[in-house]
């Protein structure tokens, strides 16, 4: 490729000897220069364009990441809320995280990938993750003809392999997606989430797998003189016994926490992964609508409305903590302290150690 500036620099010589030739060369060089600019303008893709965004004969569209940081398609009030959440999270990470380490594939097992829309979603159990998985199954085509997320059975949303996770990709593919896809997570007040997990896994008769797997162990370790039936069935674990199990140092030495009561910062690593959107369970409908707007799919799928009648609330959590001694309340708070700090949740007023 030639440099048109070289031709322009010789213009006085050509003007003196061959004016017509000079004008022809000048016009040719300028034309080539315009063609070069046009070529690069149409072939260089922005860094934030997701994989799979372009295909033969298909018009390129803005990625969710571009819409978030460069766009004006979403009302400014909710943009300001989410910018504030990002800044608070970054500040908390700087204040409370001393050591930084490199992400490994094991850290990314909860991060679901939507290559078609350029999305990475870290799912947190007991924070509307079933409905978000349903939505992503619709968006990625896994749901087949279903366009209504609620038409997908809840158990099918959790079948391994239905949705790909970031841990399944190569290192270069992981890095590319972390750079160019919009990353989002939904969080919840830590103790409300914990009580919700207890209610679902230990007080529902149909959760026999959890009763056998965890209930029998909790009864054996933390109940004085347990009855043989309780040791066998594990279906009557109290919330106090569940708390004793969580704060017992032997529990985590033996194995990692189950994902339903594992801390969000251990599941989604928010100080290692820069989340662009931090949705909250407390504003679930608003934040979910915002995410679908950013993805440009609000006309294709609607986030399911949640049933508030069975939702674990702060008042309900306070009742469960009523019989927990201040000593164990403090130990439990210390266990979940980082989730409170990173996501800007206040220490619950019902705790007695305050």
Automatic annotation (TrEMBL):
Q: Which residues form a coiled coil?
A: none
Q: Which UniProt keywords apply?
A: Carbohydrate metabolism, Glycoprotein, Golgi apparatus, Membrane, Signal-anchor, Transferase, Transmembrane, Transmembrane helix
According to its record, how does it sit in the membrane? Single-pass type II membrane protein
Query: TM spans, by residue?
Result: 21-40
Q: What is the lineage of its organism?
A: Eukaryota, Metazoa, Chordata, Craniata, Vertebrata
Protein name, as recorded: Carbohydrate sulfotransferase
What Enzyme Commission number(s) appear in the record?
2.8.2.-
An annotated GO cellular component of this protein is: Golgi membrane
